[in-house]
Every structure is written in structure tokens, then in C-alpha cells.
Design brief:
Blueprint lengths: L3 E6 L7 H10 L2 E7 L3 H13 L4 E5 L10 H10 L6 E6 L8 H18 L3 E4 L4 H8 L8 E3 L5 H9 L3 E4 L7 H9 L5 E3 L6 E2 L2 E2 L5 H12 L3 H16 L4
Parallel strand pairs: 1-2, 2-3, 3-4, 4-5, 5-6, 6-7, 7-8
Antiparallel strand pairs: 9-10
Bound molecules: zinc ion (ZN).
Length: 245
């Protein structure tokens, strides 16, 4: 059995979580990064980290989909609890949604400055805002961070890698052309595995154990043994998030 880390799950949205985590452990999952999106989910992931120590590691976030003018209240909560999380996520920008770019940029810049101040990696959502999110990170002295479920242009991926960052692969690596291209291009020592669960892939809700699907897809895309991909991606996640397992 492989040792795997699901580096991005919305655990608080999974209804039979206890069972989902048992199944994950049985599938070889040794760690799950539970990402928050707003104040409520941030509170939930912190408490999940307490319930499942050594398995669930909280990340505190401010998701662009959840943005409004009161975003500073969420950031205040993140700052108060920053020592209890392994990363700031899910954070970033999304120019496919009707939230003002100005507001997204303003909020993300504050997130980046928190990450820089407290030396936390970011778990970045960058859909249709790949260049802008990357530009916001440049020169900010933040630890190597993760561009989650990367589907952007390969030229921007090159810059993401030059800046020292990583990408993470979801089960969409089974069929999404831009995601497959990015994984093919990205060296294995910069790839993490994730599920973004409970996101639906091909109509079926995912769970942390589906990190096995991400593993299989990445192995096929890169034509490498599953064992090698499992070991390297787990090592990468441990390094990025400073996990103690
Ligand atoms: Zn997500």
C-alpha cells in the first residue's frame, strides 16, 4: 500500500466524514489538508484538526467565491489562528466569477502579506487569474506554495516553477486536457496530489480516498510507476506544509 497525502479537501462538506476518513486510511492516506473558505469553514477545519490529530491538518482560507466587503473579518480570524494551520488556503482569485477584480486583488494582497509575515505557504485557486495570482506572489518572500488543480497556460506554469512553487493534481487528471498538459510539463518534484473533495468528477462526488485516482492518473500521464509518484508527491507535501506524521 502507498502512503498518500490528500493536499486539498473540503472535509467539512463531507457528510459521513468519519467513514470517509476510515476509508481513506484504509486506502493508504496518511494525511489530509483540510482547506477553509470562509469564517464558518475555517472554524470547522480547526476543530477537525483537533478531532483527528496527525491525520487532518487545517489550512485557513478566504476563497474568492466567498468574498464580500467584510473579508477583513475572515482575515482577522485567520490571523488569530495562524499558528494552528499548516497553510493559508483556499485563497486566490477567480476571474470566471462575477466578483469585482478590484475586490479580489485587494483581498488576495492582504492574504499574501499574512503569508509573508507568518511564513505560511499558500494553497492557491487561480482559475482564469493565473498570471495575476502569480504576479501578486512575486517578491513577497512567501514560502513555496501550491497552485491547486492548475489548468492555466504552460508559459505561466514555467514561471510558477521558476518562482519555486508547486501544482497539485486532482482526479480531473483523468480527462481534463489543460490539467493533463500541466502535469505532463511539471517535474514530479513539484507535483502534489489532492482531491478537492467533495467536488464531483464525471458526476460522482469525490472523497479523500480518491487521491488514489489522482495518483493513477499522474502515473499514467508521466509514464512512471505509481510507487515512485506516491513517494515523491508525499515527500513534496510533507516538505511544503512542514507536516509531522
Ligand atoms: Zn477547493
Amino acid at each position: 500500500m502507498f502512503r498518500l497525502i490528500d493536499s486539498h479537501s473540503h472535509l467539512e462538506e463531507i457528510s459521513d466524514l468519519e467513514r470517509a476518513l476510515d476509508e481513506a486510511r484504509e486506502a493508504g492516506v496518511i494525511g489530509v489538508i483540510a482547506v477553509g473558505m470562509d469564517k464558518d469553514s475555517n472554524e470547522r477545519v480547526l476543530s477537525l484538526g483537533e478531532t483527528y490529530p496527525g491525520l487532518v491538518f487545517p489550512a485557513l482560507g478566504l476563497h474568492p467565491w466567498c468574498l464580500d466587503e467584510n473579508f477583513r473579518e475572515v482575515l482577522e480570524f485567520v490571523r488569530e489562528h495562524v499558528e494552528e494551520c499548516v497553510a493559508l488556503g483556499e485563497v486566490g482569485m477567480d476571474f470566471k466569477i462575477p466578483k469585482p477584480k478590484r475586490l479580489q486583488l485587494e483581498a488576495f494582497e492582504e492574504v499574501v502579506s499574512l503569508a509573508s509575515r507568518f511564513k505560511k505557504p499558500l494553497i492557491v485557486h487561480s482559475r482564469w487569474a493565473w498570471m495575476e495570482t502569480l504576479e501578486s506572489l512575486k517578491g513577497e518572500n512567501i514560502p513555496p506554495s501550491v497552485f491547486h488543480w492548475y489548468t492555466g497556460p504552460l508559459e505561466i506554469l514555467q514561471e510558477v516553477l521558476e518562482e519555486g512553487h508547486y501544482i497539485s493534481a486532482t482526479p480531473a487528471a483523468e480527462y481534463s486536457v489543460p490539467h493533463i498538459s500541466a502535469i505532463k510539463e511539471c517535474p514530479l518534484d513539484r507535483v502534489l496530489l489532492e482531491t478537492d473533495s467533495p467536488v464531483k468528477y464525471r458526476g460522482v462526488e469525490s472523497r479523500p480516498k480518491d487521491v488514489l485516482r489522482s495518483l493513477k492518473a499522474v502515473s499514467e500521464i508521466k509514464n512512471l510507476d505509481e510507487k515512485e509518484v506516491a513517494e515523491r508527491t508525499t515527500e513534496n507535501a510533507i516538505k511544503v506544509f512542514g507536516l509531522e506524521l
